[in-house]
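Q: Entry one of two.
A:
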Amino acid sequence: MPRGPKKHLKRLNAPKAWMLDKLGGVFSVKPSSGPHKLNESLPIAIFLRNRLKYALTLKEVQTIVKQRLIKIDGKVRTDPKFPTGFMDVIQIEKTGENFRIIYDVKGRFTVHRITAQEAKYKLCKVREVKTGPKGIPYLYTSDGRTIRYPDPIIKVHDSIQLDISSGKIQDVIKFDSGNLCMVTGGRNTGRVGTIMSRERHAGSFDIVHVKDANGHVFATRLNYIFIIGKGNKPYISLPKGKGVKLSIAEERDRRLAQK
């Protein structure tokens, strides 16, 4: 009988967003338990070794993080398997670099460099709003935070702009048609567009229709929608391609034009 939590993760079972090659060994890094689910996270080790190429082996990654050089959301993390996830801010003070973990249009985690100014805040999606003991209102966010006494206009599915150093809410972006959103799951992961409408399906999944900058309309589940801006103005900088997915033919034309 297997006892206890699983400690290993085979290469082929690792999330596709990590972009690991099939033949690079049998195993992969199993993220520790943390603020993000396994299939929506990216361990520090994969980010430093496979993306930034700052280390060649996991041993080197360990040496880097144990020197307390890596901050995630303003906190020094020394566990190489710590799971970073969508919207997390990674800071490497020694090189003066700031990154935000974000999806590209193909649904893969991308290295997105941001300014020091932008690294001071992050967006969080509101998962639940509740009332605790003694009538204290609080909310849960998508990255495992609990925030007490939020503004009463904040509802589930809204996004909040969170000041990383203080943990306070700076701004609220309502879940409304006409606002800018990014898709964080399913086939359309990484696409950015304006919310057109929401279909309610009692007992099933609510469907949201989104229109991107090129005028293409697509539909996705409500749970996969992450609001990132009011009107068509995003609160964060977007990675290359600005979240607009091109068809295969358009991609080919663009590649030929670059040659």
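Q: Entry two of two.
A:
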Amino acid sequence: IFRFMRGWNANLTNWNVSFCKSWVVDINGGQRGTVVADVSFRTGIHYWEVLVADFRTICLGVCEMPKNPRVLNDKWLGEIGYAVSASACSGGTAFLYSKEQLSTFTVKAFLPGQRVGLLLDMEERTLEYYLDGERMHRISPDQKATDTKDPAFTKLPPGPLFPACSNGFDKAFCRGVELTLELPLPAGYMVVREQRRAEQAKQDAAAPARPAGPTPTATAPTPAAAGGAAATGTAPSSAASSASLASAADVMKAPAPAPTAAASILGQPPQKK
């Protein structure tokens, strides 16, 4: 019953947005616009589906409520949230856009009449993308599939997050966007999540531990160090001062060196010729 009572929020829309029913919206061309649901999520795991009757460009995903809700009337979802964006001329490819993550990954695009599923896991802060009940994986720029356990979006904000839709940056149209909230979770999702957690735990355990640095020990400076400290204007320690005074005393007590040959010659009186 809950999913039939909830739908799109008709109080935060612009002139180019119209509603057939509370859960079916049309976004006409000519201006960008984002429509959010009348429910948001901060905790738990939630799954909903969207059916689109017709579109030139459409974005489906989640977003936070802007500080100024009027921003929704002139922004597409990729600017303010996290969106899977499909276009009628994209050749079967949908793009992943977000306000924070510059992603070069793509996913398989959806067509009018297909069931587009979005699974928001606020415990993992991830958003999953489903097409006709099948979980879709990301595709790298070289057209190779990535790990099938990777979600479409990660590191989502803590929320609250609203299910949302919009037309694209090209200000095109999307019509008959029907929202069905709070559906049962797709089969197999919890298994994928546990596998993802186990792999992350293995990576954390295999990561090399950072070596602890040596514990610094206090050592008494040598006489040379004490002399250097005096030259630089720093006060030597008491041990260094005592060592320096002892060395000076030893020098004073030492016997005078024997005169050299030159000194002996110079000290003799001149000889008479």
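A: Comment on entry two: Residues 229-241, 260-267 have pLDDT under 50 and may be disordered. The CA atoms of residues 117 and 172 lie 22 Å apart.
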